[in-house]
Amino acid sequence: MHLAIPSRKSSNPPPYANRSSRYSMLRRSRVQAIAITVCAVGAILFLVSHLFGGGERIPSGTPPVVIVTVVDEDNYSKDYIKNIKDNRIEYAKKHGYTTFFPTIKDYDLGGSPTSWARVPAVRHALTKFPYTTFVWYLDQNSLIMNPDLTVESHITNPKTLESLMIKDQSIVPPDSVIKTFSHLKGDKVDMVVTQDKEGLAQGSFIVRRGDWSKFFLDTWFDPLYRSYNFQKADTHALEHIVQWHPTILSKLVLIPQRTMNSYAKGSNTDESGAYKDGDFVIRFHGCESSGRDCAAEADPFSKQWRTVFHSR
Predict the structure, then answer these.
(1) pTM across the whole model
(2) For 65-311, which CATH class?
(3) Which end of the chain has fewer surrounding CB within 10 Å, N or C?
């Protein structure tokens, strides 16, 4: 009796199996090579864009500076407001900047003094001009007097800032224990402001676009501070947060008052802050007080700025 013995399977697979296996391996190799090439090209493009492109694409034609002035249409004449706007517009056109003129009524201040409107106005400008590098807030009762000075070369250039910044200076003169940083570099500055003999003078200040400026403005405009009844409203609120929030103080510099905030005769200042011909800006600080007339004080300088601007 013979038992059926199963036939042994050949150790050599049929020819078509070899061809299929080789084709599969070749296809996988090609896919891997393509994937590696794509990753390499992507990495190179990423490095190049960050090394030479700054990591952000700013649309062509974006103004580097926006000048913000909140206007009070209820308490000032149309001619006065027009003169203020013309002053900013002509200066901005000369240097490729732009302007923004919101009114006090554009913002809900919750019954707070109208001077608070400057804070949401600057925050509004950061949203309205999302790629503009600097926002310069300039009070209504001010005039730009020297059209040849640019914000960048005169103030915000890092090397210029380092030469201007007043280090280790009391925030509230004469002897506040909280002082400006002594080691801050120009390229790390996010707010530039001046100081008069009483304290911070926020009628003319510059902020750099970014997360810090949004945080700072939101902090300044906090309802708690607006309801606190500071004697000088937003001025004293600003001094408070600068002294009590190191995150804010660490990005702020003081520069000499006449750099961008000279006061006219009759304003509360000392000689170091008094306007002189050739200064960048003149402010009629406090002219809305009883017994003074902003339009009358501005009139001779209004004629002067038009003459100077149109002669250049």
Answers:
(1) 0.82
(2) alpha beta
(3) N
